[in-house]
Amino acid sequence: MAKRIITISREFGSGGRFIGEEVAKKLGIAYYDKNIISQIAEKVWFISGIYSGKCRVISEKGFCLHMHFAGRDLMEYKNQTENRAFQEMLQAAVKRLQNRSGEEIAAKSGAVFYSDRNVLEVLSFYETIEIQLPEFCINSDMDEWHYLTLLHYLDMADGIEGSQKLITFGNLKDGLIRGTKFDRTAEQKLEKLLQDKEPEKIQKACTSLGAEFTETKADLCAVFPVLPRYPVTLKIWFADEEFPASGKLFLQDHADHYLSVEDAVTVGEILLQKLSEAFSSL
């Protein structure tokens, strides 16, 4: 039988990886992406030497693979590639924002602008972030992707207010693949996070992140002020004799006016990480 090779090219945020995985499952063939390089390096191969701007990798069986990595080891190359992509996105976001006034940005995003200091003030979770214009530097040691998402929010916000109807990440514009996948991932992570947690501890962890609580059909409904006009709602059903504790994340129906689906997923991942840290500290 002839070998079958299918290659998929994609744009950032298009869900190409997920499509590739699903196609491979349907056809019963192996799936490979760029992560295979790291997997090979970690599980089978070892770096034997670097020469002439190339990385020479030799297997335990004696055959070798030459890869052009500009004299850097695999992990360093991966980290620097990711950092370069981050810096490019950061610079582009700052450049776009620098073409707008602080007053306009504040009016559309719900931030507060202090013209005397040329500072934007934004509430994110439990922290008030000061952003110094025109550099758009911040006074916080927040995670770099949280920072980038904050800038994307200020850039994309158009001031639209929704009906406060809750939607899943999969219901976002362009969220059918990326958003739906995150919905499933979030539910799995929440089930693990909530395992063996007392209701009081769960509520305390949510409160530590600035959440407010509302009455719904869920056992607990926490609304997190991730960004001024971008709350994230967590509905939790406590464990009983039949089912383990479970949770689900929701956005409001105007979310597409403030962040792309990729940034929305980043927000969800940040919230899950902060919840994990909050539980660990209790």
Could you characterize the architecture of this molecule?
By secondary structure, this protein is an alpha+beta fold. Helices cover 40% and strands 22% of the residues. It is built from eight helices and twelve strands. The chain has helices at residues 16-27, 35-43, 74-97, 102-109, 144-156, 178-194, 199-208, 261-281; strands at residues 45-51, 54-59, 64-67, 112-114, 119-124, 127-132, 137-138, 166-167, 212-213, 220-227, 230-237, 246-252. The protein has a five-stranded antiparallel β-sheet, covered by helices on one side. A hairpin with a 2-residue loop joins strand 10 and strand 11. Helix 3 (74-97) runs parallel beside helix 5 (144-156), helix 5 packs across helix 8 (261-281) and helix 6 runs parallel beside helix 8 (261-281).
**Tally of strands:** 12
Profile the largest sheet.
5 strands, antiparallel
Number of DSSP helices? 8
Along the chain, the helix and strand elements come as HHEEEHHEEEEHEHHEEEEH
Query: Which class of secondary structure composition applies to the elements?
Result: alpha+beta
Portion of residues in helices?
40-55%
Strand order of the main beta sheet, please?
8-12-11-10-9
Q: Nearest-angstrom radius of gyration? A: 22 Å
Work out the strand percent.
Answer: 15-25%
Shape: globular
End-to-end distance, in Å? 58 Å
Instruction: Show unreliable segments.
Output: 42-72
Mean pLDDT: 84
